[in-house]
Design a protein that fits this description.
The chain has seven helices and seven strands, in the order E-H-E-H-E-H-H-E-H-E-H-E-E-H. The protein is an alpha/beta fold and about 190 residues long. The protein has one domain: Rossmann fold. A seven-stranded mixed β-sheet has the order 3-2-1-4-5-6-7, with helices on both faces. Strand 4 (about 75-80), helix 5 and strand 5 form a beta-alpha-beta unit. The protein is globular, with a radius of gyration of 16 Å. It binds glycinamide ribonucleotide. Glycinamide ribonucleotide binds near residues 13, 14, 115, 119 and 168.
């Protein structure tokens, strides 16, 4: 089995969708979900889905090899960022392949602080007519790694950040798990 770990900071609807997609998959398994927020809803969600969930501190994430050792012990091949807030430290990037999803068409509306609803609020405020999702490899800079997939959707004049977020989430649910699967197929 090829083991995936998911990192998430918030609600975790993408994490849930990925877990459901790979349930009973012949070769890919979501091993665990990790959050930097102790009270993130993703941790609750994950437990009800029968996947182990863990919380880690900033010190464990950046300043020690504890997390890296645990991920290696669990035989993690791929880390998925599904709504994860922190910049990934170089040690983790060197040891693991990491994929992120961003809810906009990078390089637009990316970078530090551009997260979740903030992205959609800015896209709507700028009267963009198009947004979408970017699935990309993670490197040392926020949202700057190689693109694996971009999918577009319209932004309508009457959209709010919430209506746009809902449209973007639908794209994420449709394309993210399959993009992960395809990446692993190409990698093997
Ligand atoms: C998703 O829309 C994801 O693209 C975004 O956070 C949301 C998490 O939703 N990620 C970023 O903004 C990363 N910069 P979820 O917790 O319901 O999956």
């Amino acid at each position: 089995m090829r083991n995936i770990a998911i990192f998430a900071s918030g609600s975790g609807s993408n994490a849930e969708n990925i877990i459901r997609y790979f349930k009973n998959h012949p070769t890919v398994r979501v091993d665990s979900v990790w959050s930097n927020k102790r009270d993130a809803f993703v941790l609750e969600r994950t437990k009800t889905l029968g996947v182990e969930a863990f919380y880690f501190t900033k010190e464990e994430f950046q300043g020690s090899d504890k997390l890296i050792k645990e991920l290696k012990n669990r035989n993690i091949e791929l880390i998925i960022l599904a709504g994860f807030l922190w910049l990934v430290p170089p040690e983790l990037i060197e040891d693991f392949t990491i994929i992120n999803i961003h809810p906009a068409l990078l390089p637009n509306y990316g970078g530090k602080g551009m997260y979740g609803s903030k992205v959609h609020e800015t896209v709507v405020a700028n009267h963009e007519t198009e947004s979408g999702i970017t699935i990309h490899l993670v490197n040392r800079e926020y949202d700057r790694g190689e693109h694996l997939l971009q999918v577009k959707c319209p932004v309508y004049p009457l959209d709010s950040a919430d209506t746009l977020a809902a449209r973007i989430h639908e794209l994420e649910y449709k394309y993210f798990p399959a993009a992960i699967e395809e990446f692993l197929n190409r990698k093997s």
